[in-house]
TrEMBL record:
The lineage of its organism: Bacteria, Bacillati, Actinomycetota, Actinomycetes, Kitasatosporales. This is Recombinase family protein. Pfam families: Resolvase. SMART domains: Resolvase. Residues 2-153 form the Resolvase/invertase-type recombinase catalytic domain.
């Protein structure tokens, strides 16, 4: 039986190093790797991605398909069910090695009927795991290369503070004209650590730094489903696409809203992107879509006003 392995990253700036480590630690025997081109968009349905299609064509009944984490392939519970349906039809086993679903047997079948076990229970587990899947997506953006960097001898996290026994030497060197950047390199710490050590020696003009606006913090807004559906087909910037992909679906009767966490600037950019829902030349607006966009507009404007 073969062990096809699937890898994918969302942007050109990411690498599959972390996935390689997770899969290597799993001890997969004779893996056959199918890796999407770097930066393959998460917008297409998983079943439409080229390398995953090649994997499905290659796999034979009884093979086990391996992912480092489920979010490398899917972006929501609907995609999970679609992929599982195809795998089950092809009699393919599935193994997730980290994150959401890594402890769940998603391919268990009844020994006599061959049907999936506890389908209703699985649906509940899928919805319950949505929060964990969301956390995994956020972790991808923040920690994608951390373990890979550590394996190469690089340390992650914040650099240490200036040791107490080195503080006087740092301060003396600074007074003698050594730059903060050079001192940071000399002592293997961050520039912030050097600034802390020499804070009372900094010239008065550094107080201007206190006037620099603080970076924007993410805020969560509910985006109407009709707006989210439109934006998923739009040409978005990476930050906009990431915010949309990480949104959490909340069912509302027959429809849904997408709970999106992003900075106010990104929310405002997304609002601009869905302007065509109001109307475009030669294409009159659909009332329900126009109403949905205006609901989102009111929420964004309230955020800006606040």
């Amino acid at each position: 039986m073969a062990n096809p392995v699937y890898k994918r990253v969302s942007t050109d700036q990411q690498s599959t190093d972390r996935q390689h480590l997770v899969l290597h630690e799993a001890g997969i025997e004779d893996p056959v790797v199918f890796e999407e081109q770097a930066g393959t968009s998460s917008r297409p349905h998983p079943l439409e991605r080229p390398k995953f299609g090649e994997l499905l064509a290659y796999a034979r009944p009884g093979d086990t398909v391996h992912f480092s984490e489920m979010f490398r392939l899917v972006r929501g519970t609907g995609h999970v069910l679609d992929v599982l349906d195809v795998l089950h039809t092809g009699r393919l086993a599935l193994r997730i090695h980290d994150g959401a679903f890594s402890t769940t047997d998603l391919t268990a079948r009844h020994p006599r009927t061959g049907e999936l076990l506890s389908t209703v229970k699985f649906m509940v587990q899928t919805l319950a795991a949505a929060g964990e899947l969301q956390r995994d997506l956020q972790r991808e953006l923040t920690y994608d290369g951390l373990r890979a960097a550590e394996s190469k001898g690089n340390k992650g996290g914040h650099r240490p503070a200036v040791p107490a026994d080195k503080t006087d030497a740092v301060r003396t060197a600074y007074l003698e004209g050594r730059s903060i950047a050079a001192l940071a390199r000399d002592h293997g710490v961050s520039r912030g650590a050097i600034r802390t050590a020499v804070a009372d020696l900094l010239p008065e003009h550094t107080a201007v730094d206190q006037d620099v606006p603080a970076p924007e913090l993410p805020v969560t807004l509910d985006m109407p489903g009709k707006v989210a559906d439109f934006l998923r087909t739009a040409d978005l910037e990476p930050a906009e696409r990431t915010a949309l992909d990480q949104g959490v679906t909340v069912r509302r009767g027959q429809g849904y809203t997408l709970r999106v966490s992003a900075t106010p600037t990104v929310h405002h950019q997304l609002l601009i992107r869905c302007q065509p829902l109001d109307s475009t030349p030669g294409a009159p607006a659909i009332p329900a879509q126009r109403k949905a966009r205006r609901e989102y507009e009111n929420r964004v404007n309230a955020l800006v006003a606040g």
